[in-house]
Amino acid sequence: MAAIAATAGRLLRLRAAGAEGQWCRLRGAGLQAASAAGDAAQRRHVAHFTFQPDPEPQEYGQTQKMNLFQAITSALDNSLAKDPTAVIFGEDVAFGGVFRCTVGLRDKYGKDRVFNTPLCEQGIVGFGIGIAVTGATAIAEIQFADYIFPAFDQVHVIREVASMAQEKLGVSCEVIDLRTILPWDVDTVCKSVIKTGRLLISHEAPLTGGFASEISSTVQEECFLNLEAPISRVCGYDTPFPHIFEPFYIPDKWKCYDALRKMINY
Amino acid sequence: MDNPSLRELQQPLLAGVGCGPPLQKPGEPQLGPPFRETAFAESLRGWQFLPPPVPSVSAGLGELGPPDLEDASSSDSDSDCDGGSLLSPLLPHDHLGLAVFSMLCCFWPVGIAAFCLAQKHPQRQEQQHFPSLDDKPQFPGASAEFIDKLEFIQPNVISGIPVYRVMDRQGQIINPSEDPHLPQEKVLKFYKSMTLLNTMDRILYESQRQGRISFYMTNYGEEGTHVGSAAALDNTDLVFGQYREAGVLMYRDYPLELFMAQCYGNVSDPGKGRQMPVHYGCKDRHFVTISSPLATQIPQAVGAAYAAKRANANRVVICYFGEGAASEGDAHAGFNFAATLECPIIFFCRNNGYAISTPTSEQYRGDGIAARGPGYGIMSIRVDGNDVFAVYNATKEARRRAVAENQPFLIEAMTYRIGHHSTSDDSSAYRSVDEVNYWDKQDHPISRLRHYLQSRGWWDDEQEKAWRKQSRKKVMEAFEQAERKPKPNPNLLFSDVYQEMPTQLRKQQEALARHLQTYGEHYPLDHFEKKSSRTPGAGLPHVSLTACRSSKCPGSDLTASSR
């Protein structure tokens, strides 16, 4: 899984040779299920796409390539090294975690700092709050076990769409990875919309009541006269997430591309 | 001696006050806080009907003096119960004291009367509206005796609740009076259900490894808990499972075709491909669809049991969960509701030693799950989960009483999870292969039952060989069939969310249909069922699947007669 190099709020500009035409702001947020490596035609089908690692940033000194889970482990390692009050707890964290985010930490920092709790999410959260009340640092892992496949980042989908838009429509896009939802970076998004006049928002969560509605609402308040077309939302449907119909449910690059095309032709 | 004043003395003090043993309604089970509290409540109610105290008592003693002003105004004595003494401060205020005093003064009638009353109400004070609270706690919250020694109750985890079993590890009956003496046909059905499940598990686990299905959970080592309990229930008893109870469905003759259909999410899946594998459900066999979030089934099962009670359905609900899920708040809620609302439910805990990687030593510190039952007022037992007859006997008796007495039962079946938690888990990361091998070889429900069968001459190696071949063949056939079938039509993504599809959702359905018309080449449509007609632009017809009806489902060969 590729790590996201951009810091919060930074724009990732995608330029192709001979960029022309309108800028189109694309945004991605949220996670969706990844495909497995299996590629036999008869095998199960999930929306699949190509991972590309981020280009190595130059401004941070020496870097190390890692996937998302490894990055989390590294961050946890740094936290426990720096902060003696920090503890990590949750279901199955002791042996390394079901997503392998705590591998090696119990051996390194001891069983009083990296430990399993009984199977009770309300207990884990409450326990964590209590730790924090005393001023110590609580790191709670809430596990979804087998219920989500390894997640991939919607931003990768959006980046692919931006490439496609450039290739097929001659359209340049700004890709924004929102990172947070409360608070969220209103300024970055609005500045971009003011520039491009169009906004496409995508997330895996269902459309109605999803976060895209919040963004859309705020942007039309702030940038109404800048908009060249209605804001487009490409999201999951208003149904529970289905198992076998996943390829049809996911807001994939084809749905995003199609929405972008319609916005351009509005 | 029929003294009018004695009768006068007696009457008002006998009205409505009970300090005797709590009354039990005929036919209801023993003990339990509710009944004793009821007795308290009743006796408390009796207090409301207390007659005005005292004047009649003192009638035989001559004129009442005026309230003693000194007494009435005093504040530092325990004069709360006094309320103005109507007796001369010289006279004892309790019956016994009065009796003694009267005897000494040779006031025999009064003395005898007072003595009799002292026996009935040993510590009643004349001036009080309530009896003395000294001898028995009156707290509404608990029924218990007082103790004047400071002592913490030590939880007993070293020699906790014993494990009930019928067979030893070699399949020999230990106590013949506990042998359920089941007929050969039934015990063979136990054995075939467990082994067929085991075979299906092996094949489907492999199929996940090969990328044919997305996910799987095996039941290795716990087959006895499924089959023993399922066999002790009526076919119409409602089952709420967690995810590792496929043997219950197997015992109820759920066809292999439908197990596979659900795992593959193909057109035959009654769940219409919407859930991850092993999330079985079958309305006709009264098996509520498995839901991923842990322990959510527990309060639901209790609600179902309550409704069954009200319907006089003569039906029990059984609720399965693991020892890990028992740590969830929902488990606490379920137990407490079941006890207070008197529900006919069996809580069946599969204590298999691990919750993914978390061993029981990190899951709880008390004496397992069975020891929690009494805390809620629930009848509880611990059984050897790898002994199918022990599981059967306990479930049978629990069922009988749960329905007859409308109360919950807790069965903790001790067993061992031989397989990994799921296909997403590799348990060698947190437990030794030796440990797993021990249970696989030395204490397995299937081999224990096989020994029993063989010792009775109901099974032999030849039959074993033949059955293994036959069961594998059946599983493989169902498997290949399931692989070949297409997936359901993608329209089924949108249906069954609401009774009537709302406009907003219909628009989304139409948008997908239009999208597929243009971009269909990028989607695996070939593997999904085509619709017979498709009108571009218009509302798309619903495709309804025939729900599983047992009469249409292919039966299994496990029993001679179908259910």
Automatic annotation (TrEMBL), chain A:
Residues 66-215 form the Transketolase-like pyrimidine-binding domain. GO terms for molecular function: branched-chain 2-oxo acid dehydrogenase activity. Its EC number is 1.2.4.4. Signal peptide: none annotated. It comes from the Eukaryota. It catalyses: N(6)-[(R)-lipoyl]-L-lysyl-[protein] + 3-methyl-2-oxobutanoate + H(+) = N(6)-[(R)-S(8)-2-methylpropanoyldihydrolipoyl]-L-lysyl-[protein] + CO2. Its cofactor is thiamine diphosphate. SUPFAM superfamilies: Thiamin diphosphate-binding fold (THDP-binding) (SSF52518), TK C-terminal domain-like (SSF52922). Keywords: Oxidoreductase. This is 3-methyl-2-oxobutanoate dehydrogenase (2-methylpropanoyl-transferring).
From TrEMBL, chain B:
GO terms for cellular component: branched-chain alpha-ketoacid dehydrogenase complex; membrane; mitochondrial matrix. Residues 68-81 have a biased composition (Acidic residues). Its EC number is 1.2.4.4. Keywords: Membrane, Metal-binding, Mitochondrion, Oxidoreductase, Potassium, Thiamine pyrophosphate, Transit peptide, Transmembrane, Transmembrane helix. One of its GO terms (molecular function) is metal ion binding. GO terms for biological process: branched-chain alpha-keto acid decarboxylation to branched-chain acyl-CoA; branched-chain amino acid catabolic process. Its main location: membrane. It is an enzyme of class 1 (oxidoreductase). This is 2-oxoisovalerate dehydrogenase subunit alpha. The gene is BCKDHA.
